[in-house]
Amino acid sequence: MSTTPQVETVSTGAEKAKLAAVAVLVIGSIAAFYLLGQQDMWLRVLVLLAGLAVAVGVFFVSDAGKQIIAYGRDSVREVKKVVWPTRREATQMTAYVFAFVLLMAIFLWLTDKSLEWVLYDLILGWKH
C-alpha cells in the first residue's frame, strides 16, 4: 500500500490568470505609490492600500485563497476542541516549572563548583 504524495498545482488558465492579476496588482500598487511621489502622502497611501485590497480580494476568490480560508476555518474548529487548563492548573504548572528550573540551576552551580574545587584545588593544587 504505497500512497504517493499529491502535489497541488494551479491547473486552469483562469486560476493562473487570477494569480497573475494578483501579482500585477501588488506590483502596480507599489509602483503607483512611488510614481505619485509629488502628491500628498495620504493620497499615495490610499492608492497603495486600495490596490493591495483589490489584490487580496482577487486572491481570495482564487482556489488558493479558498483553500486558505478553509484551512483557517478548520484551525478555528480544532482550537475550539482543545480542553484548556483552568487558571489554578496553569498557575500550578508554571510554579512547577519555576521550581524545577531553580533546582536545576542550583544543581548545575554545585556541580560546577565541585568540579572546580576537585580540578583546581585537589588535582592541580592551584589556590584562588
TrEMBL record:
Membrane spanning segments where?
A: 19-36, 42-61, 93-111
Keywords assigned by UniProt? Answer: Cell membrane, Membrane, Protein transport, Translocation, Transmembrane, Transmembrane helix, Transport
MF terms from GO for this chain are: protein transmembrane transporter activity
GO terms under cellular component? plasma membrane
Q: What is its subcellular localisation?
A: Membrane
Q: Which domain of life is it from?
A: Bacteria
Q: Tell me the GO BP annotations in alphabetical order.
A: intracellular protein transmembrane transport; protein secretion; protein targeting; protein transport by the Sec complex
Q: Does the keyword GTP-binding apply?
A: no
Its quaternary organisation is:
Component of the Sec protein translocase complex. Heterotrimer consisting of SecY, SecE and SecG subunits. The heterotrimers can form oligomers, although 1 heterotrimer is thought to be able to translocate proteins. Interacts with the ribosome. Interacts with SecDF, and other proteins may be involved. Interacts with SecA.
Role summary? Essential subunit of the Sec protein translocation channel SecYEG. Clamps together the 2 halves of SecY. May contact the channel plug during translocation.
Which HAMAP family does the UniProt entry name for this protein? Answer: SecE
Family statement drawn from the similarity comment of this UniProt entry: Belongs to the SecE/SEC61-gamma family.
Q: Spell out the protein name for this chain.
A: Protein translocase subunit SecE
Organism (species): Ideonella dechloratans
